[in-house]
Amino acid sequence: MKRVLVNEAPVGEYCRVAGFVENLRNKRYMAFIVLRDFSGKLQLTVDKGAYPEVAEQVDRLTVESVITAEGRLVENPAVKMGGRELVVEKLTVESISDAMPLMADSAIDARMDYRWIDLRTEKNRLMLQAQTTMVAAMREFLLSRNFVEIHTPKLIGAASESGSDVFELEYFDRKAYLSQSPQFYKQMAMAAGLERIFECGPVFRAEKSFTRRHATEFTGFDLEFSYIDSFRDVMELEAELLQAALAAVAEKHGGEIERLFGLKTIVPTLPYPQIKLHDLYDELERRYGYTVDESEKGDLTTDAEQLSYRFSMDEYGHEFLFVTDYSAEKRAFYHMRDEKGIPQGYDLIWRGTEITTGAQREHRYDVLKQQAAEKGLGDDVKFYTEFFRYGCPPHGGFGLGVDRMTMLLLDIGIKEAEFLFRSPNRLTP
Ligand code: AMO
User: Fold this and answer.
1) Is the entire prediction scored with pTM above 0.90?
2) Ligand 1 atom 10: residue of nearest CA
């Protein structure tokens, strides 16, 4: 007999269900088990006198053990859980659980130690489902616009980007590095004439950061496309992409997110507001008295980033904010710059946290080489600058942190938003 999910088990029929024992009340003549599978919960009722073999198995049970049960599913208005129960005729114990090492209120690090148990909660199930829906919607959006999905190597021979926050490892008789971004390969795809590509994959950062939003390994959603007129084309595409992603999440999980996390999933309207970095600092000072030294104004400080949410809501009633016109000093050498030297790129801030960096890239070989040299990156990036020697269309793209999105969607920390969190002091489980 085939197993059915508890929320699909048909009333009036004999069926087989399987899952974890969430709760157990083992009385003298009757036993009541709350069975939990991925779809929900169901009460199993055991008449111990009528089914002594089942009773024997129930006596062995502990909470969080895994069982398979067969019986008739009946309606019973007295049952709190959906007014249905399975009257058990057969029960198999698949796996007995030891005493739980976690409580509902265990500290986050204990929960991380036993992540496979922590992930059994309803909230974590929803977190992973919402993330799945979000990424699937982004993938669908791009496929419908003729993007090609690529898979770039994570083992690389030279540090990508800056080289400062890269993990080094032994690779036979030489060094290799873990990719900190698919950046160079996304651009290689443009030089290959692929025109529109995306990738969703692991990104590694050797940063000793211990914040709510930094991990040493995370999932990046990166895309790149050709024949753009400016970085504003990239911003526009991203705004539409995230609108589609959040619309899918709101439609499928909005109610559950509100019930379990107490949060509304707001589908952003187009266009998203945008502001130049310098103007943002002026606004934050004028409105909220936030001041920062002039020397720090080429980049967004963490405090300003958080405060920008308040500004964005006050001024535009929008949760998203594009910030442009960073200083060239703070931006990567591969960003295209205008005649005044301003990088043609942006960061996207959602609910006060950066989720994306994007830009038009410098595709002119000589200019690119010059910009790399200015940052002291000669030979390290030679393999990359070669991509631009044999013809390359103008192009741009962005990198989005999937874990950051999930975290902001549900107002949780990044530890909880990843399936398994990696930080400077966590490599297990
Ligand atoms: P950047 O370094 O800004 O840009 O990374 C892109 C996005 O990745 C996420 N992110 C992180 N998430 C969790 N933990 C971290 N330590 C972490 N670092 C970054 C953020 C961030 O916005 N090559 C460029 C992208 C591009 O221009 O296409 C890049 O990697 O959401």
Assistant:
1) yes
2) 401
